[in-house]
Amino acid sequence: MPSQAHSWALIYELDGGTRFSVFASANPARGGHTQMGFSVADVRAAVADLRKRGVVFEDYDEPGLRTIDGVADFEGHDAAWFKDSEGNVIEIVEFD
Question: What is the domain range of residue 9?
Answer without folding.
Answer: 4-94
